[in-house]
Amino acid sequence: RNAVFTRLLDVFGAGLRATPLYARGRANALDLRCVAFEVRLPGLPSSFDGYRLLHLSDTHLDVLPELVPVVHGLLDGAEVDLLAVTGDVHGERGTPVARSAGLLGEALRGVKVAGPRLAILGNHDPQGVADQLMGMGFDVLVNRSMAIHRGAGRLVFTGLDDVNSFYTEAARQALDAHAQPVGADECRVALVHSAEMADHAARAGYALYLAGHTHGGQICLPGGRPLVTTLRRCRHGAVGLWREGDMIGYTSSGVGVSHPPVRFNCRGEVAFITLRC
């Protein structure tokens, strides 16, 4: 199915290049926006009230390197407590992963991160991406968790391997490892490339779920309704803010694009998320 979908995109992209719409769509892809909002999380320890995250997803900067100065311009001088990259740093199968990671580092060079830099892998990311990101100071969470402590409070981040193309039971086990009742001074955040584990994360007691994968549709109907999301389940989490039970989810529209490198009725984004009690 993925091979058929990719072939259809190639045919569509070839046809689009022969029209004036291609230049417009490419310009749209370079028109990134900066999103900033607060989420009020049940159980968030008071010591983390005001904790600020920078969330990026689907950077794919090797597909459209012209995005690097755009991202840098949006983020230069930004100060956050934590940086979370939810997969698909890489884009082109034939491009060295070092180039994709290097372009991301260049785009982020002006960002000041007081705490951890966390990343997970997406369906386009081979193992080499993890090696590159770790060399850049990222903690790459592949079906494992990391706890951040402030006073008596604890914020737990669990990152999964991509579940859309590479699902294994290890992903469920990583979520369920924290499925015991949440303590009074603990809050949990799931970092998953797609929204497709939302119901499992909600049942396991997670308060916040950050994802990407869909690019917000990349090519959408007027009003931003995606034509295609490639989600096989939890499709209500295709873009933007959503809920699953008591859990809040946010699916980024992504920084970059896959082929064809265009956007219509869907802007790429970087997101600043402030946690509130």
The portion of residues forming beta strands comes to 25-35%
User: Please, what is the average pLDDT?
Assistant: 93
What's the overall geometry?
globular
* Number of distinct helices: 7
Q: Oligomeric state of the chains? A: single chain
Low-confidence stretches: none
Biggest β-sheet: count, sense, barrel?
Answer: 6 strands, mixed
Q: Helical content, roughly?
A: 10-25%
Trace the largest sheet across and list its strands. Answer: 1-16-2-4-6-7
What is the radius of gyration? 18 Å
H-E string: HHEEHEEHEEHEEEHEHEEEEEE
Question: Can you put this structure into words, describing what you see?
Answer:
- α3 runs parallel beside α4 and α4 runs parallel beside α5.
- The mean pLDDT is 93.
- The chain is 25% helix and 27% strand.
- 47% of the residues are buried.
- The protein has 277 residues and is α/β, with parallel strands linked by helices.
- It has a six-stranded mixed sheet with strand order 1-16-2-4-6-7, covered by helices on one side. The protein has a six-stranded mixed sheet with strand order 8-9-10-11-15-14. A two-stranded parallel sheet has the order 3-5.
- The chain has seven helices and 16 strands.
In short:
This protein is an alpha/beta fold and 277 residues long. It contains seven helices and 16 strands. It has helices at 2-17, 21-29, 67-75, 97-107, 127-135, 169-176, 198-203; strands spanning 33-40, 52-56, 79-80, 82-86, 112-113, 117-120, 139-140, 144-150, 153-159, 186-191, 208-211, 220-221, 225-226, 240-244, 247-251, 269-276.
